[in-house]
Amino acid sequence: MENERTKNEICMEFDAISENEGLARVVIAAFLSRVDPTVDEIEDVKTAVSEAVTNAIIHGYKERGGRVVMRASLSIENELSVEISDRGIGIADVELAMQPLFTTGAANERSGMGFSFMEAFMDRLEVESVVGEGTCVHMWKSFGSRQEESAPILQAAVWNRSGRA
Known about the structure:
Elements (H helix, E strand, L loop, with lengths): L5 E10 L3 H14 L6 H22 L6 E9 L3 E8 L7 H4 L16 H8 L2 E7 L3 E9 L2 H17 L4
Antiparallel strand pairs: 1-2, 2-3, 3-5, 4-5
């Protein structure tokens, strides 16, 4: 993931257990804090990461354990790149798996909306998978237009509070 356009990168590996889904959410939120995202932007990313991690645990490893890797990087343009990967069973038909409401779990246990949520909350989503080798979910989201637009407003507010306006 790292290249000359990357300004920060993290990588963490954790056991594929449900308790660690919350850990991944907290880590990605903390990592994002330096780009001053909105609360909605943080929640979108946390939800997408949560869905990807949950898919790795539930579907990749069938809740039998393994390791999940989360890599994230921020580019100099404030684009977040997140990869969630496992070395689980893989997905035989990625296109089918990405269809809304498709699930390999029991119908009353899983909604089949994991990939749909990831697509809805992130700017871009790619899924690579090899049966018997695992899956990598790669997601991107850009931050920045809000910061550039709000900077002059913030400066004006500070100017007015100083009594110099």
